Amino acid sequence: MRTTVPTLPAMPQQRTPQPGPAVDPLESALRAAFDAGEPCDAEGNPVIEIVAAASTYDLLAEQVADRIAAAMPETAAKMDRAVFVAHVADGLRLAAHPLCPDGHLWCTADPADHADPREHFHHGAQIAMHGAYGFDVMAFQLSQLGDGPVELAFVGNGDWPELNLDQVDELIDDMAVHLDRLRAVRAKMAALSTAAANGVNAR
Questions:
Q1: Which DSSP string corresponds to 26-86?
Q2: Are strands 127-131 and 134-145 parallel, antiparallel or unpaired?
Q3: Which of 19, 98, 110, 120 would you call most buried, defined as having the most Cβ atoms within 10 angstroms of its Cβ?
Q4: Pairing relationship of beta strands 151-154 and 121-123 according to DSSP bridges
C-alpha cells in the first residue's frame, strides 16, 4: 500500500493544515500477526492464504488477538476481545479463497484450472509491480501441472517507458520490496520441493 507524500511549492502560501487520515493503531500489529513479509497483492497488501473450514476462522482470529495482546498489551486492554475476534473472523471469511481439490494451500483454486478430472493446473497468487513504470511488471506466481514439480511462472514484456528521476526512485523502492516477495516465494518453492522429495504430500 503506497503512501504518496505531496511536495510543497518553493514559496508556500499560508494554509490551514488539513488533518491527516486516521490511522488504525492495530494496523501494524495486524500486519505483524499475519507476517506482512509474505508476498503481496497489486496494492502491496499481504497475501494471506486462508483455506480452512468456517470453524477454523474463529480459532485463527483468537490467535491473532493473542499475538496483538502480547505485542500491544495497552491497546489490547482497551478493546472488547470478543468483538475484535468476531470482526477478524468475518474478515478472514471474506478473504478466504476456495479450497483446491488436491489440497494445495498455495493454489488459488480457479475452477477452470481444476475442471478436467484427469489433470489439474495449480497457480499461486500473481505478484507484480505496478507504478509509473508500468503495470504487471515482473509478475510471477507459483505454478504446477498435475503432480509435476512446482515451478515459478515469470512474466516479462518488452515495454520501455521513459521515467523521470522521481519515477526512477519509485521503481528502485518497489524493486526492493518486490525482491523480498520473490525471496519469500522462492523459500516456499524450496519447502514444497523438499516435501515432495521426502514423499510428503506438499501443500
A1: THHHHHHHTTTTS-B-TTS-B-------HHHHHHHHHHHHHHHHHH-HHHHHHS-HHHHHH
A2: antiparallel
A3: 120
A4: unpaired
Taking a C-beta distance cutoff of 8 angstroms, is the pair 195, 157 a contact? no
Residue 83: all three cell numbers together? 468483538
Helix H or strand E segment including 140: strand 134-145
Coil, strand, or helix at residue 111? Answer: helix
What is the rounded distance in angstroms from the CA atom of residue 203 to the CA atom of residue 200? Answer: 9
- Asked if 49 contacts 41 with a C-beta cutoff of 8 angstroms, the reply is no
Instruction: Go through the chain and tell me how many residues it has.
Output: 203
Per-residue pLDDT tens over the stretch 76-95: 888 888 888 888 777 777 66
Angle at 22 between CA 18 and CA 25, to 5 degrees: 145
